[in-house]
Write a structure and sequence with these properties.
This protein is an all-alpha fold. The protein is built from 12 helices and no strands. About 80% of the residues lie in helices and about 0% in strands.
Length: about 290
């Protein structure tokens, strides 16, 4: 009887391991297929002129320099607003808020925001930022829309990082006579800065990949502008340009080249997130 049970258990364990390996292989195969396919289609079409010029209908040249600049502008503008809001809200909910019902309501609202389709954010951003606040179609309006979209990511990652700091660290600092804010600034935040930075980097990845919300708020312009002027002007990011070239114009070579640039940026961001986490984990273990 015992041998039958042990044999069934071995078969069950072997079956589960086999299913897990199959899942891992399928996931890796899908990722590799996506990366290799996009790179194979896009890299041959990437040239220096393609990266350093703007589109010109008179000379029939296509460049994505305005789209790269607009992407950088919208990333910077979004992070400037979303990091203080997200980190501040997480600190309040974790360290200051004593009303558990209020905390649960805010967390529920944050989770709800993270599940709303991005096209709805674009519609609300167009009606509120572009029309009601009279920002018109601009990079700044798109950045404010992305702030609302990425706020739950920063809040959640910061909250989880704050919870990993042992309570004994706080109690020891309080025992030495430090105030609440000093404890948070000198003890809690340095102990969880790796999670905060990782959340910010992952948020950048979502900003780079967003297109639906920016179609309504940031616009389609391909002009090269300075940072300040660009914030108040219409501009297409790389993802919006990818949509325009693929869907509206049918120029799939340009679309795949733009997709390859986006893929490279995404890989760099993921590697940066991994390296930052490892760096701060090593500093913490020293």
């Amino acid at each position: 009887m015992k041998s039958q049970i042990s044999n069934k258990r071995k078969i069950f364990i072997f079956t589960m391991k086999l299913l897990m390996w199959i899942s891992v292989i399928i996931t890796m195969a899908l990722v590799l297929f996506m990366v290799i396919y996009v790179m194979a289609k896009g890299l041959p079409n990437i040239t220096y002129q393609f990266l350093s010029t703007k589109p010109s209908y008179l000379s029939d040249t296509i460049g994505i320099l305005p789209n790269i600049l607009n992407t950088v502008y919208i990333v910077i503008a979004t992070l400037v607003f979303v990091i203080p809001l997200g980190v501040g809200a997480a600190i309040y909910l974790t360290e200051y808020a004593s009303n558990k019902k209020l905390v649960s309501i805010i967390e529920y609202a944050s989770e709800t925001l993270s599940g709303i389709p991005s096209i709805i954010y674009g519609l609300v951003g167009m009606l509120f930022f572009c029309q009601f606040l009279n920002m018109k179609t601009s990079i700044l309006a798109g950045a404010f829309t992305l702030v609302i979209m990425n706020l739950p990511i920063i809040m959640r990652t910061t909250q989880e990082s704050l919870k990993t700091v042992p309570q004994s660290y706080r109690e020891g600092a309080f025992g030495l006579g430090a105030g609440k804010w000093r404890v948070i600034r000198t003890v809690v935040l340095p102990g969880c800065v790796d999670g905060v930075i990782t959340g910010c980097i992952l948020s950048i990845g979502r900003i780079l990949g967003e297109s639906a919300a920016l179609l309504f708020t940031a616009g389609f312009a391909h002009a090269v502008n300075g940072f300040i002027e660009g914030l108040f002007s219409s501009g297409a990011t790389l993802t919006v340009a990818l949509y325009v070239y693929a869907k509206e114009r049918g120029e799939f070579e340009v679309a795949f080249a733009t997709a390859a640039v986006l893929m490279i940026l995404t890989i760099i961001i993921n590697l940066a997130a991994t390296m930052v986490s490892r760096y701060f984990n090593k500093r913490r273990s020293i």
